[in-house]
Amino acid sequence: MSFRNSKRIFGAGVSALAAAALMGLATPASATSDSSTWNLPGGDKFQVNAWHCGTYVKACNWTASTKLKGTHPSKAKWIKNRALLQAHGISVSIKISKNPEATLTMKSRSLGQVSLKNTNAKIADTSGQMRPSWTTTFVSTKSCGSAQVTSKIKVSEKCVYAGAA
Questions:
Q1: Which of 57, 139, 155, 163 is deepest in the core (most CB within 10 A)?
Q2: In Å, what is the CA distance from 4 to each residue of 11, 79, 87?
Q3: What is the pLDDT of residue 164?
């Protein structure tokens, strides 16, 4: 093989890799996430988290959680997480999978809501996979948490957002 032919083959390989990257065919290499923590009376903390893959080929894993951190009390009367999973772009759609105990409600072709409410627990976490249409430019995960910690401590819904601004 001459130098000229090997240069063509190398150039074609680089072009194919660049095209794959532009089409979103790169392997998962990073993640997009957000997390916030709020102080509660008595010293406990309330945390809401959102995470999803940074790059994907056909599917993107996601996780959303609401946590009570501390021991006063060790468990909330109830704790809830509501995750909004969305595909962004022109004429996009999304398919969503989730853990069996959670509830999925499709709000539109490109937006789904997954909810989970646990009683006598310190965590409500949901996870699954997003399968956005090929026209999707990016996906986002908005995770919202609320809780009735004790009869006197109620946490109104607090949200975090993972995705492009």
A1: 139
A2: 11, 66, 44
A3: 78
Any idea which residue has 């948490």 for tokens? 145
The model's pTM is 0.80
| pLDDT bucket at 135, cuts 50 / 70 / 90 | very high
Amino acid 131 reads R
The C-alpha angle 68, 69, 71, rounded to 5 degrees, equals 105
125 secondary structure, DSSP code: E
For the chain, the residue count is: 165
Q: Tell me: cis bond preceding 73? Omega within 30 of 0 counts.
A: yes
